[in-house]
Amino acid sequence: MRYSLIFVFLPAVLLSFLLLTPTFALAEGFQVTPFLGYRMGGYFEDAGTGLTLDLDEEESWGIILGKDIAPGKQYEFFYSFQPSRLTAGGLVTPGVLVDVDVEYFHIGGRNYWDKGTARTFVGGSVGATHFDPQSSNLSSETRFSLGLGGGVEVRAGEKVAIRLEGKGFATFLDSSGAIFCGTSSGCEVFIASDVLWQFEVGAGVSFRF
Fold this sequence. Notes:
It is a single chain. The chain has 209 residues and is mainly β. The chain has helices at residues 5-20, 22-25; strands at residues 30-40, 43-45, 52-55, 58-70, 73-88, 95-115, 118-133, 141-155, 160-172, 178-182, 186-190, 195-208. The chain has a single domain, classed as Porin (Beta Barrel). It contains two helices and twelve strands, in the order H-H-E-E-E-E-E-E-E-E-E-E-E-E. The chain has an eight-stranded antiparallel β-barrel. A two-stranded antiparallel sheet has the order 10-11. Strand 4 (58-70) and strand 5 form a beta hairpin. The protein is elongated and about 55 Å long. The two termini are 32 Å apart.
């Protein structure tokens, strides 16, 4: 299992900042949500071979930072990390081509509606998808992406809630280009796709300050 450095250090830095900066920690409407999830989907059409190359379904984890801006509205920063593999199916294809870490860095917002002890919400985001092949011979790739999702928060206390959410991502590709290229090994995939789609479901614990 591989871990992104940002996931290891960001929560520690954030919590230290909150503890050492009382005026910020006591500001109303700030929310931190570490979460665990499961991400599905994601495939490339290889123009060179005609094969469909899939990103394996795997667990994901990350953090969401939110700030209230008006009643029922909130800005958010969303980060999610997934360790995956690029695979090719079929009897004569090589199976696993390369391990790939997939990360989403998004900013956006959500609207929510209180319903007793729960609040439902919908939201959207824009940002970048970072593909990091775990091979020293291949370069990483960063592409523009959009996100759309919704879910529910169930209050577990005055400042704590359980957040359940589903989110879809569209990552835009250059259908005349290639990805996962190396200086000496060439490129793993010549893209025949315009958009890569992934869907993530997750559960987290939200802390409000």
